[in-house]
Amino acid sequence: MPGMADVTGDSLSASLIRTAFLAQTRWKAMQSRTARRYMELHALSASLDLFKPGAVVPWVSYLFPTELLTSYKITPMIPEIGSATLTGSDLRGPVEAAAARAPLARDVCSYHRIALAAVENDMLPVPTMCLGTTPLCLGKECLLETLAVRHNVPFREIRVPLPPDEGETAPEVIADVAEQLRVLHEDIGRWTGRRPDLQKAIRLSNRASAAWGNIMSERLAGRLEMDGRLTFATVFLGQLLWGTEEGAKDFERLLSERGRRDLMVPVLDGGRRLKRLLWLHTVPHHDKEIFDLIRDRDAVVIFEEMGQMHLETVDPNEPFFGLAKRLTDNVLWGTSTRRARLDVALAKQLRVDGVVHFNHWGCRHGLGSVPVVRAAFSEAGIPFLAIDGDALGRGGAEQEKSRQAMESFLELL
Amino acid sequence: MATFFEGMDHHPKTEVSDLNPPGLAFPGREPYPVRDFPMANCYYTCNLLPTDLIIQTGHVPRWLGNHLRRPGAPARRGALSIHPMTCPYVTKLVAAADELLAGSDDCLVVPGGCDAARRMGDLLAAAYPDRVFVLPMPRSSGLEVAKTLAVDLARFEDWLRTRRPAETAPTGGTSPDAGNATQEPPDLDYPVPPRPGGVFVVAGPLTDDSLLRLIDRLGVHVSGLESCTSPGRWRRLAALGGASGGARSKDAPVAAAATPDYEALAVALLEIGMCPRRSTIARRDHLARRLDESRPTSIIYARQSFCDPGAYDSLLIAALAEERGLRYLEIEVDFPFDANGPLRTRVEAFLEAETLDDDLLGDDLFGDELFGDDLSEEEA
């Protein structure tokens, strides 16, 4: 059975193993025919292409509008997704050992520390360009520019002003971000020598957005109950596929019952009602214990804060403006007060029993807003729990403490 | 209702209820006792501000790092706090600001250079509405960036003026409680003038010169300091005039000050504030220039724990040290810097090795012949 260590090389044997590895993943997807499995297949397939000799490898921030890349048939390399994938594979040991040896301080975000160690040790492909956005955090901008300096490749940062606490971002602010995107899009063409088809990428992205927006509306209205943890994991990978044919089809698969059947909330015997939780920030990708505990206590993560993106389509005639608006309006961008206001409104709309904030290791952006978010939920009378942990961690003392806190919280609910 | 600042004609009357305004209800908070400060202070966190802009609006700019809570002082129940996985600078400043703002109607400006600072601003702004201004600080420079910052500086000045109408502002920019001082920036200075051939120190904010003195006491001199509180930074910022890029005389009446050229201010600010949160490429060039000017033999990086920009910056410095063949030490420090304990031992060990190297080379222990002066070319 080949593992990640065998598929990330650029030899002929690695290429053959990649093909076999993908065939196996494809078989699983065809058997299940769910969006989740197909998304895994297509994200993996696109990512493995990045290891091929001569591949264009743009390292980008999680919120980077990837349509700018897919319009050139380029797949993004998102460090958070790369790190989560590696630490969930047989490369976990080697990449953790490499990170421990690396001189970068251990107190920075583990997504970024692992990504830097991985690229420096040939477990992730080296960048051809590094493209950041000021949302959501400064750490990943530091990572991306550090990589750009080390590998002597271009670095660009899209500057996105903070949105106002109330109301919408001014059109001229969005227009400024749009102009930066337009210039960058041209630069990518110049650097790679490729010709773009942005209209097509936007059309495909819009198909996916329409499907995803529809699903999210149904979930918000209470007509559709999907497991927030599994849904987040799916959309997390889907971030690599916006603007592609595969991405459009995979998000559209969510519209059918069969396509989303492995993401649904379980139905309890005897009509018992599950406790509904709203999950804020990222999730522990590899730590099943906490979610097993939630399930065992008849609770479920009914909605995930980070899934709220790409909910509206973009005007194909003004693609840069639409893509810019997605950045300026992102729910996690802006002040802590804005985030608290939106989250409280979300919790009320979903009528959740409680809210959990995951304090990801080293994420100053996320955990820095917790005091304000906590106070807002307290004022609204909605139970709130913040648990510390590492999104890439597996067990350990910190995780055990969080598990105990979660247990008490669920009992309280 | 009781009023504060009774009889002080230069200050607007403030009601008790205004001093601990509703804001967001942080559960379990007990009020701080109100302090009787007759002058409007504008505290600031990161040393990234043209302080003259604050003075012109009748406020006394005070660096918050000079007003930390006493170590061991009992914390108020429900005092504001931030997650401990945040740098000690921010955690200590949150506590200090909470105490100062709760006991007065002073204001605070938080240049939001990094995530932790931005979130500190968010927290304090939520707790003290209309009294905290978070100034967005860009990573990069360039014309568009400077224009955006200029707009924000103008917005900041408007905000300050709204808080303190012109007729209540004192002339001359002096404050009754501060004597003749118009501002209170960081006051770190070199205990001994820096000179080449010693240690180049890179650090985050420092409240005093204890790190520099420690190095000096250990028998090695300092070649330069790169810190947001270094004399090279705060002196230039303090001298950065609001009107024309030059310092305005403290005796000049506030009303006479011309409208500042915000764009020029923004450009100057971006040029001076070349700290670790800035673009890696620009920062690397800046550091390389500083090292070339200072000509040190070694580098000590005093990095605060949980500081993201500092973590990546230390990689950059380590690479520059390697390129130049300089010895390098990274130490993780608290805020304020504590020159005792294990840190002292590490710095001592590092500097002892440096002194030893110098001795070995300088004292000619083995004589020239052993180093090949008398050897033939092949033997050498």
Give a description of the structure.
- The complex is a heterodimer of chains A (about 425) and B (about 375).
- Chain A is an alpha/beta fold and about 425 residues long.
- Chain A has one domain (about 5-410).
- Helix content of chain A is about 55%, strand content about 10%.
- Chain A has helices at about 5, 10-30, 35-50, 65-70, 80-85, 90-100, 110-120, 140-150, 170-190, 200-220, 230-240, 245-255, 290-295, 320-330, 335-350, 365, 370-380, 395-410; strands spanning about 60, 130-135, 155-160, 275-280, 300-305, 355-360, 385-390.
- In chain A, the strands form two sheets. A four-stranded parallel β-sheet of chain A has the order 5-4-6-7, with helices on both faces.
- Chain A is globular, with a radius of gyration of 21 Å.
- The model of chain A has no long low-confidence stretch (mean pLDDT about 95).
- Chain B is an alpha/beta fold.
- Chain B has helices spanning about 15-20, 50-55, 90-100, 115-125, 145-165, 210-215, 230-240, 260-270, 280-295, 310-325, 340-360; strands at about 5, 15, 40-45, 60-65, 105-110, 130-135, 200-205, 220-225, 300-305, 325-335.
- The longest helix of chain B has 21 residues, at about 145-165.
- The radius of gyration of chain B is 24 Å and the shape is globular.
- Classes of the chains: A alpha/beta (about 425), B alpha/beta (about 375).
- The interface of A and B includes residues 103, 161 and 368 of A.
